[in-house]
Amino acid sequence: MGKMGVELLSDPRTNKGSAFTLEEREQYGLTGLLPPVVSTQEQQIERSLNSLRSKPCDIDKYIFLSAQQKRNERIYYKILIDHIEEVMPLVYTPTVGQACQEFAVNFRESNGCYVSYKDRGKIEKVLGNWPEKNIQLIVVTDGERILGLGDLGCNGMGIPIGKLALYCACAGVDPAVCLPVMLDLGTDNEALRDDPFYLGLRQPRIRGEAYQAFVDELVSAVKTRFPCALLQFEDFSTPNAVALLEKYRDQTLCFNDDIQGTASVALAGLIAATRITHTQLSDMRFLFLGAGSAATGIGDLVVKAMVAGGKDQALATQQLAFMDSKGLIVKSREILTDHSKPFAQDLPPMPLEEAIKTFKPHGIIGATGRPGLITEQVIKLMCENNPHPIIFALSNPTANAECTAEQAYRWSGGKAIFASGSPFAPVEINGETKIPGQGNNAYIFPGLGLGTLLSGAKRINDDMLIRAAEELAGSVEEAQINSGCLYPPLRNIREVSARIAVIVAQSAERHGLLSEPLPDDFAQRVRSSQYCPDY
């Protein structure tokens, strides 16, 4: 190990605590620094789980797990992997939303790299201060659009930390190659700037050319300092998210999970839903609630999937309609954003319920962050046109979902095909148990990242996202489909991620994105490479 004594115990990556054997204690100068009884890893996990479950609320559990990660990394990941259905909602959505809101007041010790606007001109040096040098995966945010909670500034660091934990647990990416990065360019959240505990820059957000120059410097610094790293943009505002992805996607190895990951996991849910509706994806119409980067990202990928299946692109595009706060997005509107303009309908302006009657969608996809937007009347109108209306309430955290699973099933008499971004409990209706599928991006981005890194792909393209969605949809067993669930159980996620890794690598190879051909045993290599936290 190289380290000795207290230094060894203080490093969460090498610390085994009371599980160090008596021989190891002698070897590494630990005798007397630990209680005399040697524990097994299983006993340590049981002890930690008892402590975790005794906490009175989810945010206390989040804080406990964060401390565990900084104390004994392998126990943390062992718990997350083996108890993922219980623990993932604590590590990420929905609890991470509250964790970000309270990030400053609960701050204990650093767990990532903070790059502030004051560091401009020396970002490469700042990144070089990170102790690990073989970084292959970076998740970065500027904190402006955290989940559905808005501008949380420097508090948004909880998102990159949580995302990378899921990369490690869900796909087996080694934690040692992961780096969470917070870009602190100020905040327009005045309450944060006035909060005495806030740890970020107390100034309005930097925008315009200065913002772009700062991000340019970051991307350049990453390419210099960590040339093989995949850079994932996370929770940027819609205009910045779209612009940054368009600028960098063909220049460097990068990915935006809010746009591309959300799109792929939503597409997977829609493909799985065809097994219930018995209507081909290319023959469906979808009405999107919201026209931000997540919603239009889903729309773009759905169109590309339809075109890949033989549909004319213009026809496919017109099978998708979008609503924003002003109503249906139509061609006659004076101002149209670049990302919503292709989907503008040749119809008069109209509100939601009239749009359902006119457009007759097979499914509604909510990505607004506005709870209660999908009402009883909306679902009843959907049922008039569809024996099994597709209702996706994708906004996070749970409190921001456009409707609940209970509402979707009750208001539709059990007919709805429901999926959400955050977890909901099963619902008993008409003598059946409906299991709402959670369209969690963790089904896509960990496997996508793993396959990209292991294959050495130079870029991530749309075909890789479509193939990942198809693989995910194909992983849903018939019994789950029969209970209305469009996604596989979380307990299977590491195997699903391994299969997605292989599929995206093969797609990258077909599109000439690899420097060398994949070896014949690539699938075996993927599984053997997956990080295992066992002692």
| Strand order in the largest sheet | 8-7-6-9-10-11-14
Count of separate DSSP helical elements: 23
Helix/strand-derived class? alpha/beta
Q: Mean pLDDT score, rounded?
A: 96
From the 3D coordinates, which CATH architecture of the largest domain would you assign? 3-Layer(aba) Sandwich
Beta-strand share of residues: 5-15%
The major beta sheet can be summarized as: 7 strands, mixed
* CA(first)-CA(last) distance: 13 Å
- Rg estimate, integer Å: 23 Å
Number of domains: 3
Principal-axis shape: globular
What CATH first level of the largest domain would be assigned? Alpha Beta
Query: Spans of 5+ residues with little confidence (pLDDT < 50)?
Result: none
Helix content bin: 40-55%
Give me the CATH fold name of the largest domain: Rossmann fold
* Name of the CATH homologous superfamily of the largest domain: NAD(P)-binding Rossmann-like Domain
What is the number of strand segments?
Answer: 14
What does this structure look like?
This protein has 535 residues and is of the alpha/beta class. The chain has three domains: 110-252, 3-Layer(aba) Sandwich (Rossmann fold), CATH 3.40.50; 260-439, Rossmann fold, CATH 3.40.50; 443-529, Malic enzyme, N-terminal domain (Rossmann fold, 3-Layer(aba) Sandwich), CATH 3.40.50. The protein is 45% helix and 10% strand. It has helices at residues 5-10, 22-27, 41-54, 58-71, 73-82, 84-91, 95-101, 123-128, 158-171, 190-193, 208-225, 238-248, 257-277, 293-308, 313-318, 352-359, 376-385, 405-411, 445-455, 462-474, 478-482, 493-510, 522-529; strands at residues 113-116, 137-141, 178-184, 230-233, 254-256, 286-289, 320-324, 327-328, 363-366, 390-393, 417-420, 427-429, 432-434, 437-438. A seven-stranded mixed beta sheet has the order 8-7-6-9-10-11-14, with helices on both faces. A five-stranded parallel beta sheet has the order 1-3-2-4-5, sandwiched between helices. Helix 5 packs across helix 6, helix 5 (73-82) packs across helix 9 and helix 20 (462-474) runs antiparallel to helix 22 (493-510). The longest helix has 21 residues, at 257-277. It is globular, with a radius of gyration of 23 Å. The two termini are 13 Å apart.
